[in-house]
Amino acid sequence: MTVAAVRGSPLSGLRACGVCGTPDALGLGTCIACGRGEGHRLLFLERPGRRADRRALQGWLLDGLGATVETDAAAEAAEGLRPIASLSGAAAARAVASLSAIGLSAADVPLARRWRRLPVGLLALMAGILAAGLFAASTTSVGFLLLSVAFVGLTMSAALKRLGQPIWVPPETTVFGLSRSTELVVRAALDGLGGSRAREALTDLATLAAGLVDVPDGEIPADVETAVHELLVLASDAALDLDRLDGGLAVLERQGGEGPIDVSIAEAVAKAVEARVLLVRKFDEALASLGRLQAATANAPRRLVEVAEQLSADAADRQAAWRTVERLTT
Questions:
Q1: C-alpha closest to that of 221 among 298, 304, 307
Q2: What is the model's pTM?
Q3: Helix 222-257 vs helix 315-329: angle between axes, to the nearest 10 degrees?
Q4: Quick one: 87 exposed, middle or buried, by C-beta within 10 A (0-12, 13-18, 19+)?
Q5: pLDDT tens readout for residues 117-169
Q6: H/E element, 323
Q7: In this predicted structure, what is the pLDDT of residue 58?
Q8: Per DSSP, which regions of the chain are E strands?
């Protein structure tokens, strides 16, 4: 990575969050605040060799992540000493690929294995302290060894704690204005989506559904809230199906361009395309139905159930099509 690579990757060249429109600095498709799934992997930037590159990378982080990140924290992340964020496995892999595409080297590390990111210099220093303590214990008193072990233990513990603290931790806020349980389902799905079509469909559906539970001057009817939750659970599953089908079809299309198409592959592609087209149509119908329903909330529970049934219909066929595609692409 060079200074030119960093400066050639301005924030304006990256996508905006598909939910709230803020800059998507990591190229996830959604910002971390909107697509926040279970974070069990840490995203680290690889330390550039040149000081000028590290300074440029620090500036890129401050521009990309905004006022939520302190200057010192950005400097530590540019040095590879602290993670940028805590992400799910799918989101971390997308972030590494996205950053690589703009010339930035990154790695995602399981939280339990963050010790692998300990600086070599620190490990060498701790080894030297232990060796000195061992030597002192053999010549004078064993107390020196105990002190050195205690010091090394405390230092390593502090270093590991620091390695587990991302510089970017978005606040726990509602994105759509849904109930917490529903928000968690939708945002976990957004976190796992790689395709823009599936993400857009789920985002639009969640936004419209949230309008039905936005009652400023009264209680939300329990049946409406329940119906919205069930609809968005099914929509989240359907969006993941659509995303998988899109990814699998892209792989099969590339394989088809490399040589003659096998009959079994052609049949699998046909079934997958049919399932995908049907799913997209049902998402569009669901969006249209919710749009009409905004003005007539009296029938909301019954209509929401109908919309959910549209999305859940043929789920078995969708999954069967995906399993066939998966076998051919893995």
A1: 298
A2: 0.64
A3: 30
A4: buried
A5: 888 888 888 888 888 888 777 777 777 778 888 888 888 888 888 888 888 87
A6: helix 315-329
A7: 87
A8: 41-45, 85-87, 106-110
27 within 8 A of 94, measured Cβ to Cβ: yes
Q: What is the DSSP string of 59-93?
A: HHHHHHHGGGS-HHHHHHHHTTSS-SEEE-HHHHH
Write phi, then psi, for 240 (nearest 5 degrees).
-65, -40
Average pLDDT of the segment spanning 56-81 = 82
- Tokens 């099914």 belong to residue: 234
Per-residue tokens: 272: 């997958």
Taking all residues of the chain, what is their mean pLDDT, rounded to a whole number?
Answer: 76
Rounding to the nearest 10 degrees, give the CA dihedral for residues 252, 256, 262, 268. 30
Rg of the chain on CA atoms, in Å: 25
Dig out the tokens for 101 from the structure: 């595409």
Structure tokens at 71: 């200057």
Distance CA 83, CA 105 (A): 13
| Residue 191 burial by Cβ neighbours in a 10 Å radius (0-12, 13-18, 19+) | buried
Which of 60-74, 133-147, 215-229 has the least mean pLDDT? 215-229
Q: What is the pLDDT of residue 293?
A: 67
Tokens of 302: 């019954």
Crossing angle of helices 143-163 and 120-139, rounded to 10°: 170
- Those residues with Cβ within 8 angstroms of residue 209's Cβ, 6 or more apart along the chain or in another chain: 176, 178, 228, 231, 232, 290, 304
Taking the CA of residue 57 as centre, how many other CA atoms within 13 Å lie in the half-sphere pointing to its CB?
Answer: 28
How high is the pLDDT of residue 270?
78
What pLDDT band is residue 301 in, cutting at 50, 70 and 90?
A: low
Torsion of the alpha carbons at 184, 67, 167 and 173, rounded to the nearest 10: -20
